[in-house]
Design goal:
Elements (H helix, E strand, L loop, with lengths): L13 E7 L4 E9 L2 E10 L15 H17 L8 E5 L1 H5 L4 H11 L3 E3 L2 H15 L6 E7 L4 E7 L2 E8 L3 H8 L7 H23 L5 E5 H13 L9 H14 L14 H18 L5 E2 L4 H13 L4 H12 L4 H18 L7 H14 L11 H11 L7 H12 L18 H12 L13 E5 L2 E7 H6 L1 H16 L3 E7 L1
Parallel strand pairs: 1-4, 4-5, 6-9, 9-10, 12-13
Antiparallel strand pairs: 1-2, 2-3, 6-7, 7-8, 11-12
Helix pairs in contact: 1-3, 4-10, 5-9, 6-9, 7-9, 8-9, 12-13, 12-16, 13-15, 13-16, 14-15, 16-18
Catalytic activity: [phosphate](n) + H2O = [phosphate](n-1) + phosphate + H(+)
Cofactor: Mg(2+)
GO molecular function, one term: exopolyphosphatase activity
Length: 502
């Protein structure tokens, strides 16, 4: 169900982050000591998953096998890491796979820990988090760019806070695959690649041109390799300029192939380096970047800091959910009441339904804050609007699967309750939907107070709600709502019995 990390990983304090990128898979292991991050181990394998992505959204068997074998090797290193101490995320290629559920299931079996797919916006946030922690703390404004295998993230921020985030569908693998798949480099192919990159940036260029920044920082392999080339060639001490990028591209044009050997570029990065350099040149041209330096930290380190926040109850998802609720003018006081009632009901049935109290309580709380967001669009079938919003907006900290689960819970907080609504999210959310529905009913109007002596019990699909008779007589509309709710439960294969007690 909902994957909420909460248990500190043993006495060692070891945690791990894994980035399933389109070009390489990375894993870093760290320990927290005296409020400092100490990196203990790094592993990287050039899986090139992006090369195996077919036009129909499937992965070639060879690349799939290579990816899973890599995760199995990573899993050997993580064998003694408890649940909640590892966070593994997939980026552009996994976002593009037609049906990723089978792959994620196999990946979890090999790795021993769940793998999440994150949105481009979430990837950008984590990249900025990693870069911001890498440099001296200050409130300077900065542009951060990260060129991955399948996508490029560009973020504007101040200090530790990202302000503008974009994920562009171009990367070193994608660009190479599209324009230099045969390994040949021509002036014509370079020109086409640069135009395509410019077209990808153009829709967001105006937004960035409205801002200024004190420094431009690049992250991850491509940009660090470009900085290495500049330093090795004596063009600079590692600073990147458009002029140096033009020199690199010209060297490839003269050589005529992608197998050009350059000091500063590793052998496994060599085949896709030109594609990455072209993407970076397009960023310089279209965003008017004068110079850029490379940072040592990026997405993986951002994952570690984000995981640390979750483990210490500083979970950004909590503030993201509240911010979304406020954005859509949710009655926060009422949301708190619904959340509190759902927690009280959860306590009574968690054991009989085998629900994890922490995970379930967190998800119910967030559902209580988000189910009304659709009211800003329309009162008619607002639960459907709410589900669409929750599924498609950027909720910082949430993976794609987590937002799908939240959207299903929001969708089913009222009216029809059917297993088909949980097809993607998982039918194990059905008990939580039932709890949220009941909590919502008890708070339809502000004047309601929870009846003393309310008791909820459950045995598999049979649910009994015991309510003081005097309260039901004083609240006939709620009693009618509960009777209607029993019919919805019946359609879903559950039996809800409302029992007045003296």
């Amino acid at each position: 169900m909902f994957n909420l990390s909460r248990v500190l990983p043993g006495d060692s304090g070891h945690i791990a982050a894994i980035d399933l990128g389109s070009n390489s898979f990375h894993m870093i292991i760290a320990r927290w000591e005296n409020q400092q991050l100490t990196l203990l181990d790094k592993l990287r394998e050039p899986v090139r998953m992006g090369w195996g992505l077919e036009a129909d959204g499937s992965l070639t068997p060879e690349v799939r096998e290579r990816a899973l074998a890599c995760l199995e090797r990573f899993g050997e290193r993580l064998r003694d890491f408890p649940s909640g101490s590892v966070r593994a995320v997939g980026t552009k290629t996994l976002r593009s796979i037609k049906d990723s559920r089978d792959f994620l299931r196999e990946a979890k079996a090999k790795l021993g820990h769940p793998v999440e797919i994150i949105s481009g916006e979430e990837e950008a946030r984590l990249i900025y988090l990693g870069v911001a922690h890498c440099i001296a703390p200050d409130n300077r404004s900065r542009l951060v760019a990260d060129i991955g295998g399948g996508s490029t993230e560009v973020i504007l921020g101040e200090g530790m806070a990202p302000k503008v985030k974009e994920s562009l569908s171009m990367g070193c693998v994608a660009m190479t695959k599209r324009f230099f798949a045969d390994g040949k480099v021509t002036d014509k192919a370079i020109k086409k690649a640069r135009i395509a990159a410019g077209q990808e940036i153009a829709p967001v260029a105006d937004e960035y041109s409205e801002h200024t920044w004190d420094e431009a920082i690049g992250a991850s392999g491509t940009i660090k390799a470009v900085a290495g080339v500049c330093q090795q060639a004596g063009w600079s001490s590692g600073e990147i300029t458009l002029k140096s990028l033009e020199k690199i591209i010209a060297l490839y044009a003269k050589h005529g192939a992608t197998d050009l050997t350059l000091d500063g570029v590793s052998e496994d990065r060599q085949p896709v380096f030109l594609g990455g350099a072209i993407v970076l040149a397009a960023l310089f041209e279209n965003l008017n970047i004068e110079s850029m330096v490379a940072a040592e930290w990026a997405l993986r380190e951002g994952l570690l800091f984000d995981l640390k926040g979750r483990l210490e109850d500083h979970d950004i998802r909590e503030s993201s959910v509240r911010a979304l609720a406020e954005r859509f003018h949710v009655n926060i006081a009422k949301a708190e009441r619904v959340a509190a009632t759902s927690q009280a009901l959860l306590q009574q049935v968690a054991e009989s339904w085998s629900l994890d109290l922490h995970d379930s309580a967190q998800l119910l709380r967030w559902g209580a804050f988000l189910y009304p967001v659709g009211l800003d669009i329309s009162h008619s079938d607002y639960h459907k609007h709410s589900a669409y919003i929750v599924q498609n907006v950027d909720i910082a900290g949430c993976s794609r699967a987590e937002q799908t689960q939240l959207a299903a819970l929001v969708r089913c907080h009222r009216k029809s309750l059917r297993p088909k609504h949980f097809a993607e999210a998982g039918t194990d959310l059905m008990p939580l939907a039932i709890i949220l529905r009941l909590a919502h009913i008890f708070h339809r109007t502000r004047r309601h107070s929870m009846p003393e002596g309310l008791a909820l019990s459950a045995k598999k699909k049979k649910i009994m709600l015991r309510i003081p008779r005097v309260w039901l007589e004083a609240n006939p509309l709620t009693y009618a709502d509960l009777e209607s709710e029993a019919r919805y439960h019946s359609n879903a294969g559950f039996e809800l019995q409302v029992v007045p007690v003296d």
